[in-house]
Amino acid sequence: MTEQPVEHRRLIIAGTGIAGLSAAIYAGRSNNEPLVFEGDEPGGQLTLTTDVANYPGFPEGIGGPELVNNMKEQAQKFGAELDHGIVVDVRPTGEAPGDRAGPFEVELKNGDLYTCDAFIAASGASARTLGVPGEDELMGYGLSTCATCDGAFFRDEDMLVVGGGDAAMEEANFLTKFADTVYIAHRRENFRAEDYWIDRVMEKVDEGDIEIMRNTELLEIHGSPEEGVDHVTLARNEEGYPTDKLDDPDTETFDFDVGAVFYAIGHTPNTDYLEDTGVEMDESGYLKTVGGDGGGQTRTGVEGIFGAGDVVDYHYQQAITAGGMGSKAAIDADEYLEDLPAETAAGAEATAAETDD
Ligand SMILES: Cc1cc2nc3c(=O)[nH]c(=O)nc-3n(C[C@H](O)[C@H](O)[C@H](O)COP(=O)(O)OP(=O)(O)OC[C@H]3O[C@@H](n4cnc5c(N)ncnc54)[C@H](O)[C@@H]3O)c2cc1C
Question: How would you class 327 by CB atoms within 10 Å of its CB: exposed for 0-12, middle for 13-18, buried for 19 or more?
């Protein structure tokens, strides 16, 4: 790690998904000249999808990478600087007056150190995957981690939902609008989901729209990016967790025809790097913000740190909601920076300038 900061900025944003880029556009327009670190997934989750059909303003739909690139261009036009850094640690210095925790030291994976007066965490959440063969090739081409986003593309197909929690039940229920039949593959006998969601699914089972495959796990997805998903290979063992028991003679493996596969095995919020800040997180690691009515909704409990998008919002997890929250975070950060005594920011800038010599 370098001893001295490379540079001091008014505002640093972690993430160039829809939340981070929306924040960057607004912060640029407020003359806060944000420095935006891209992390290891430049453009965020939306770059994994070829077709975004529900983002307002694009009646014919738009490719995820194209939407993200447009937003990057827009952010840069307003003075945002995008950089390929991965933030590994954020540390409050507590040198600012009052309750303010900043300025913050922001350490990157390559060892570079920056300081900033305000920080927006827009680092998203990564959908969990299984690592089975076919997964990398077919992600976005019949395999998806977002039923709300991609379900309508597979109208009248048989669909497989993998998972056994609330998300799997909710997504399976949702997909019955489009699917011929929705199959749920769950590795155990019993679901983890709440009774409410299990009851909704059982109603659809009674109506013949959903079939449950208990004690069943996905082994492989077959197909091609051109033709999409053709079929899957599944394993079943009545004792559960069949992939741990592939040598067991009671484990059956079989091919099964489906036109789409949806993973609903949870998301992991990217918040490890915030642990030293003292921001509050829930038990899964999602960042807690103030929320509610009026200004300051994206404030965390640490003055000067704001959160936006999927890193906070485990419920909606949509591009439009992430974008909306990103714009709110930039407005909240701007109000915070406006209130910051001028000498704090100027002092920090002077320190960074001395370091440059
Ligand atoms: C396959 C798929 C299809 C989807 N389709 C749609 C759709 O059609 N419509 C829709 O509305 N939504 C869709 N979504 C959901 C949508 O993509 C997300 O809700 C949205 O991208 C969330 O934006 P975000 O900016 O909060 O986070 P993300 O998109 O997750 O972006 C997070 C950013 O943070 C960066 N980052 C992470 N850790 C760090 C770090 N330590 N330092 C610096 N940067 C970091 C990442 O590199 C990334 O740039 C889809 C999601 C998936 C997975």
Answer: middle
pTM exceeds 0.90 for this model:
no
Please, what is the average pLDDT of the chain? 92
Q: What residues are in contact with ligand 1 under a 6 Å CB criterion?
A: 14-20, 37-42, 44-46, 48-49, 52, 54-55, 86-87, 122-125, 127, 140, 144-146, 149-150, 270, 273, 309-311, 317-320, 322
Burial environment of residue 227 by CB neighbours within 10 A (0 to 12, 13 to 18, 19 or more): exposed
Per-residue model confidence as pLDDT tens digits over 306-353: 999 999 998 888 999 999 999 999 999 999 999 887 645 544 554 444
Tell me whether residue 120 is in a domain. Answer: yes
- CATH number of the domain within which 161 lies: 3.50.50.60
Nearest to 296 by CA among 340, 338, 341, 333: 333
State the total domains in the chain: 2
Residue 2 lies in a domain: no
Domain of residue 316: give its range: 7-126+267-356
The DSSP bridge partners found for residue 211 are 183
| Amino acid letter, 42 | P
Give 287-291's long-range contacts (Cβ < 8 A, gap of 24+).
287/121, 287/311, 287/312, 288/312
* DSSP state at residue 110: T
Only one residue has tokens 């789409």, namely 260
Which of 237, 263, 289 is the last residue in one of the domains?
263
**Whole-number pLDDT of residue 53:** 87
Residue 69 in any domain: the answer is yes
